[in-house]
Backbone:
């Protein structure tokens, strides 16, 4: 039995070196990416049995899109290989103030965007302790929206825990469309992740963080609601204990912001799979996010021993 599964779009990321504009770039750095893939890869590196489902063209680019998952040791036995079609791409133009880093998508009509419920081996996808879902996949197409809804419904019927990361992408759909699609999906999930900005933009929940997270918990019924606030750290609400927990962000030299939210989710889920309490899960989350910010690429590269050492406050020393 697997520990955790996910489905979504595996992407290729093409990054411009810092200080270079995309329209003038002579070289591009290539990474594999995708929100759900990043979470599964991180958990696999931490020793969990993770499985991932997507559709890709049977080509060099399709195989390259799985590079991070393959290196992490995730199970890829249910990848759907297509004779034709394309891989979703996105470009990252790193920038320093006063400009912000820009993301440009080229993912329309990818093989993954055409995934539908009939494509999935449900015994495999639901043969795990935990199913991880994000709000990105339902933004890709009507069929992906139907797939996400069916996956959550089937998981609930089978007693499989569901974690859900809102992960709103303004370049994929409007806030109104996201709100209408995501509210029904979020209700009753076991672990809900939502950035403070997403709560405001998508669900109209503004005000003090404590008020916003309580509103998310009350309106979704999620036992655990976790809200990230960037450099302000993270909050978590335990609905059963009616307790609020906080974790400060770790100081870090930021090299690459892409994927930090996925690393945070993976850290929390690592703790959840371990049976840790919510405060410790939060510490895993902020630690893994900081580690990702200090690395290039979409997916954090680490192992359980390193994570435990950093959580214990033993990182940063010279190891000989």
Residues:
């Amino acid at each position: 039995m697997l520990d955790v599964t996910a489905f979504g779009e595996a992407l290729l990321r093409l990054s411009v070196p810092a200080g270079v504009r995309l329209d003038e770039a002579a070289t591009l750095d290539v990474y594999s990416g995708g929100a759900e893939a990043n979470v599964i890869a991180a958990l696999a590196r931490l020793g969990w049995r993770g499985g991932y489902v997507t559709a890709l063209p049977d080509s060099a680019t399709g195989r390259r899109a799985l590079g991070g998952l393959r290196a992490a040791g995730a199970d890829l036995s249910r990848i759907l290989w297509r004779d034709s079609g394309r891989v979703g791409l996105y470009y990252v133009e790193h920038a320093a103030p006063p400009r912000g880093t820009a993301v440009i998508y080229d993912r329309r009509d990818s093989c993954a965007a055409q995934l539908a419920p009939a494509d999935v081996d449900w015994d495999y996808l639901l043969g795990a302790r935990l199913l991880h879902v994000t709000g990105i996949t339902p933004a890709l197409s009507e069929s992906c929206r139907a797939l996400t809804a069916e996956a959550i419904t089937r998981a609930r019927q089978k007693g499989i825990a569901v974690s859900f990361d809102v992960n709103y992408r303004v370049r994929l759909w409007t806030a109104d469309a996201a709100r209408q699609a995501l509210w029904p999906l979020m209700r009753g999930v076991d672990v809900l992740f939502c950035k403070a900005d997403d709560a405001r933009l998508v669900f109209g929940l503004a005000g003090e963080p404590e008020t916003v997270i309580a509103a998310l918990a009350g309106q979704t019924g999620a036992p655990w609601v976790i809200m990230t606030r960037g450099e302000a750290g993270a909050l978590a609400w335990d609905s059963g204990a009616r307790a609020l927990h906080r974790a400060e962000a770790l100081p870090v030299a930021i090299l690459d912001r892409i994927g930090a939210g996925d690393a945070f989710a993976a850290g929390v889920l690592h703790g959840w799979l371990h049976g840790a309490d919510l405060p410790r899960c939060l510490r895993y989350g902020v630690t893994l996010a900081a580690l990702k910010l200090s690395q290039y690429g979409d997916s954090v590269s680490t192992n359980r021993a390193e994570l435990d050492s950093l959580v214990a406050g033993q990182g940063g020393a010279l190891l000989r």
Notes: Residues 142-158 form the longest helix (17 residues). The CA atoms of residues 124 and 277 lie 28 Å apart. The chain has a mean pLDDT of 95.
